[in-house]
Design brief:
Blueprint: H1 7-20, H2 23-30, H3 37-51, H4 54-60
Helix pairs in contact: 1-2, 1-4
Length: 65
C-alpha cells in the first residue's frame, strides 16, 4: 500500500466501492448517520473511530477476507 498523499482517501473509496457497493451502503452497514455530502466530510473520522486507523480499515478489508 502506497503512503503517498491521498492514499487514505483512495483506499477508503476503493473499499467502499468493492466491498459495500458505494459510500452510502458502507455508511448504512456501519450505522454511521451521515448521508450525502456529509459522508465525505466524516468518512475518515468514522473509519478511525471504528477501526482505529485507516491502515487497520484497509487490512480488515483486504480482498478475499
Amino acid at each position: 500500500m502506497s503512503k503517498e498523499p491521498g492514499w487514505d482517501a483512495k483506499a477508503i473509496g476503493e473499499i467502499a466501492a468493492r466491498q459495500y457497493g458505494n459510500f452510502n451502503k458502507m455508511f448504512e452497514q456501519h450505522g454511521w448517520p451521515e448521508r450525502g455530502q456529509d459522508m465525505m466530510r466524516k468518512v475518515q473520522t468514522r473509519v478511525k473511530e471504528q477501526y482505529g486507523s485507516i491502515a487497520a480499515f484497509v487490512e480488515k478489508h483486504k480482498a478475499g477476507q
